[in-house]
Amino acid sequence: MEGELSFCGKEAARYVAASLPLIIQSDGTLLLDESHPDYEQALGALRPIAEFGKKPGRWHTYRLTPVSLWNAAASGETAERVLENLRRFARYGIPASVEREIRERMDNYGRFRLVRRPEGLFLLADSPERLRLASEWPEVAACLAPSPANVDAALCVRPEMRGALKSALAARGMPALDEAGYEQGGALRVAWRRVSAGGKPVALRAYQEEAVDAFLDGRAGGEGSGVVVLPCGAGKTWVGIGAMVRLGCETLILTPNAVSVSQWIREILDNTTLMPEDVGEYSGQRKQVRPVTVATYQVLARKSSPAGENAAHSLLMGRNWGLIIYDEVHLLPAPVFRLTARLQAARRLGLTATLVREDGRETEVFALIGPKKYELPWKAGESEGWIAQAECTEIRVPLDPAAAWRYRGASPRSRHRIAGENPAKGEAVRRLLERHRGEKALVIGQYLDQLKRLAKELDLPLVTGEMPHHARQEMFDRFNRGEIAALVVSKVANFAVDLPDASVAIQISGSFGSRQEEAQRLGRILRPKPGGGRAFFYSVVSEGTEEEEFARNRRRFLIEQGYVYRLEAWRPVEAGAPEGVSV
């Protein structure tokens, strides 16, 4: 009887294991069954440690990345706890190669530490042998200075090479824990107003307070350096201002474009006690360096000004910055990475809606800005009413006959543009605008010729990067006042454009398979709507072309966040109403 009971117990265990929702493959691919009752719990175990790949059907594909595992380690997770969580859901267990990968990546975080002593800046390691090995790596050796005679078991680091050393170690798969501290920076007398200039009470939302607290908490990968991830429309700007108010120090704010510069300055002046003479704009139009300065990435990326002066050096070294804020940090260009490496003594806050970078430089963001300190999932923000509920739809439109003929004989790169500029998309856009008559709508695209043609056909205003900054801002202001119901906009509106009343976005072309662009374009319409109204996001795709594959890649991030795309196949008007099917 005892043997029989033992046999039944083993069979029961096998049955339970076979019914679990997660399959972990030896190459590190993780397959999660969306239809399984434990899907949500398993997803909670995967999100902190893995990056979403694709959703071919009911099986969602994830993969482990060095940065995702380092972020988990920086947040206080251990390899043992991660493995224990995975075992709870793994149908066939964890392959030995995957277990080694998780242990190695997570254990490598913090093996090296940067500390400050009276004698200077030093690199420590968890063993003398590892420290000796690091000293022999050429890119590390270039960052070192001769060590004082009275210092043992440490490598002396040149202060100006602090960032370069961190980048070098991260590239070797061993990111350092930076415990060297930060300079306070110039003092700044600033506080929140009780009531904004517009007459509204000024107060951070609970999650914004949590984000500021997390940024300033030294237990999660270093006090005062790291990245806060919030959905578009959830108020990342307020988190940045909140950190500045808490720290009370001179602050440099870097943004993607001139429109964003204006918006940051307006928010600061409307909601804090700072005066106009305290806040400067450093852009193509103005060169003001003040206690709080808002600049564009483009200005920093330029080699020199027309007068030959290095603008970036003048801006960065001209004041004693205590805090540097990187708005839309996922857009950080390579020249600014290099400059950031020289600014490691200042606290650094990255703000973004997604850590996805299409260029694969997430490691540099982790090393030079810091680990992820706080994240609010998009659907969590939606459920709490902080962002609007959104319906996402892909509209598939047949190629125009002339475009189809050109597409068949074109090179792969030309095919993308031909499909993107498909003239047949114009009819789909017109009908979508009719469907949403009375709602504020944006038609967003990549190609200026296409946008100009469409704006003329639909008799709509067009906003592009060719327009002067003041003209663009005036058009956005008219849209916000309700004087314009719909705008055709180029990629200049992808980021940091405040159009709170927009509720419909129609994407007619984009940058190949850019996940970040898809998320940012949806974000243009996610500000909460009066009465809890919904937002509608449409992606118009040329049917039967490689644009369909790019569209699948573009929506990966949003699908991971919980958004579902419907599919509508559009036909000419005379064929009747459009056919809609769920996907």
Describe this structure in words.
The chain is α/β, with parallel strands linked by helices. The protein has four domains: 2-108, no CATH class; 112-178, no CATH class; 206-376, P-loop containing nucleotide triphosphate hydrolases (Rossmann fold); 383-582, Rossmann fold (3-Layer(aba) Sandwich). 38% of the residues lie in helices and 19% in strands. It has 24 helices and 23 strands. Strands 18-19-17-20-21-16-22-23 form an eight-stranded mixed β-sheet, sandwiched between helices. Helix 22 links the parallel strand 20 and strand 21 (535-542). Helix 3 packs across helix 5 (96-108), helix 4 (79-89) packs antiparallel against helix 5 (96-108) and helix 9 crosses helix 10 (236-247). The protein is globular and about 85 Å long. 45% of the residues are buried. The model is unreliable at 1-16, 305-309 and 575-583 (pLDDT under 50).
Helix percent band = 25-40%
Would you state the CATH class of the largest domain?
Alpha Beta
Structural class: alpha/beta
Main β-sheet, in a few words? Answer: 8 strands, mixed
Beta-strand proportion: 15-25%
Shape: globular
- Overall pLDDT, averaged? 85
Count of separate DSSP helical elements? 24
Radius of gyration: 26 Å
Uncertain stretches: 1-16, 305-309, 575-583
CATH topology of the largest domain: Rossmann fold
